[in-house]
Write a structure and sequence with these properties.
Serine Threonine Protein Phosphatase 5, Tetratricopeptide repeat, two-stranded antiparallel sheet, 74% helix
Amino acid sequence: MKKVLVLIVFMSSMSMMAQTKSELLKHFEAYYQQMKSQGDIQGVINAMTHLNVLEPSQQRLDTLAYIYVSEGRNLEALNTIGIDNNATDSNINTEVKALALKALNQPKRALVFYEVLFKKQPNAYLAYEIADLKIQTNDLAGAKASVDYGLSNVKEGMKKAYYETQRPYEVPMKAALTYLKALVVYNMNQNDNLDQAIGLIDESIKLSPNFNLANLTKEALLAKKNPKKE
């Protein structure tokens, strides 16, 4: 009789726990939707975290990491999903790792994930990012190949955003890729290729006169070409 009583209590307890979990899931799902409708990003993060604790899901972790990286919280994004390159990773998971590692100035690590994305869906946007990272890691031959691919596959209307000024601005992707081509050419031989690099930067500025970064780089190269006499 005592064993039967213990079993009844145990089963009742399990039923109550299941009911409580179900109620909590409904609560946080409703809370998530409410925070989303209000545009409360921290509230969305809190709700998603609670939902994942109650019912763990890789999809939820990927979404949570994407929210973090969208808010510039790159370490938190990587702490959520890690930095390993897994064959089973979703596209969102891979993109988050690429974006976060690049933002954290880890070009070699970021490059791994950008190349995974490029293999799945090659395009001029990813070619630009890969070329930029390869310039940073001094893989100039690889950077040139990526720039050439980008220039051969760039489409009308593609834009690249830059953030070095107080107000972010956009330039045509062709201008952005031409600018990277100038950097590759210059870094291959900083003395012999100086004029060619300046010419390419002029091409990028012609495509987009508001290209602040290209204008600044041109000024720096011209100063090297024509140093002021003291």
